[in-house]
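Duplicate of earlier report; NDP-deoxyglucose-2,3-dehydratase input re-posted below.
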Amino acid sequence: MAPGRGDPGARPEEVVDWLASRARANRFRVERIAFDRLRGWSFAPDTGDLVHDSGRFFSIGGIEAETADGAHPVWRQPIIDQPEVGILGILAKDFGGVRHYLMQAKMEPGNPRAVQLSPTVQATHSNYTGVHKGAPVAYLDYFTDPSRAHPVADVLQSEHGEWFHRKFNRNVIVLVDEEVPAGENFRWLTLDTIAALLHHDNLVNMDSRTVLSCLPPAPEGSGDPAPVRSVEDWLAAERARLQRRVRRIALRDTEGWVRTADSIRRVPDRGFRVVAVAVEAGNREVPQWTQPLFEPLLPGLHAFVTRRFSGVPHLLVRIGAEIGLAQGAELAPTVSCVPEYHRDRPPGRRPPFLTTVETAPPGRIRYTAVHSEEGGRFLNAVSRYAIVEADETPAPPRPPSGYRWVTPGQLSAVARRGGRVNVQARTLLSVLSTGAVRL
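Output:
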């Protein structure tokens, strides 16, 4: 394929092989290390927070939530504090009347498949302003200079509210007219090819998925503005009902967590740990570094239940409260949990609709794939994503409190407003917005 030319005939298998070849062409190595081997990182003597010597990038502190009810009226845990707004950007261009997207083969230290399909630009503010003293970020000007391209989507979106404190990234797609050569770690792909790759496990990274979820909604089921406003009104009312007080605390004050030579973990060991790694990456702006990562202990499950009403497909969304979300809650998949923690619980104590998803016959499973979460901050964080069709018995027209039926178009319209649809729901929305699945 000539540099800068589209690749309308690229088969998914060819892209998989290309990603593997990029992994072979560069040295990648991730080694777990003790905290005292971190370079440029230290525990602050006054708070115990894990901070970078530059005062930039991110830090790991503590957070506390108090709720009026629930199994844990007071909850404390470590949290990632990264106040900078990064850029997750995809460059688009039309070749022969067909829209293509410039995707990158990028290594992230926490991903189980080291090299995944990433956005054109995936960079924190510290990275693209040169705090890391590394090589410049390729194609950055197209996303920082408005005169270089035409905006298709430009939205501030939240990250994982379970592990980040009020973190947002700029999710942006821009359309260019000029010739843009594709570097050796980049490739122009059609949306159809990307959609097919979303069916592969651990191949399209989280940052690509969240940007793709911002594509304009498909006409089918998009709804008129009134129902979209009603969804937003419902979300606002549910947020107001949350009885939760959240405050930042020192890492040393996260009661129930202990720090050892190579991890910070809960007692008993459950949920996630904070660990440290040393990284070598031949195709990154900085070839070697060390950093902390959050390591979930078990895989998650994020799934939408879907059914049709009057012939129109709907998704069952849930009010997802997460400790680190700026507004307390966002629209979430029907089910978001770690199934193993609920395996032996009686039906009444399991998350609603978990059994519906787990016992769905193959003919009812419209989509399923395993995807990794943000590999720059999380180690081996993987979840199964699914869309499961149900009938009225497990999924009634009037769902429980905190749940609501919306069309895919309504959810897409709300997501494009920013800060209203969580990152797991946006992964599943990307499956619909790219046409990987049609309900």
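The two ends are 34 Å apart (CA to CA).

Merging into the original ticket.
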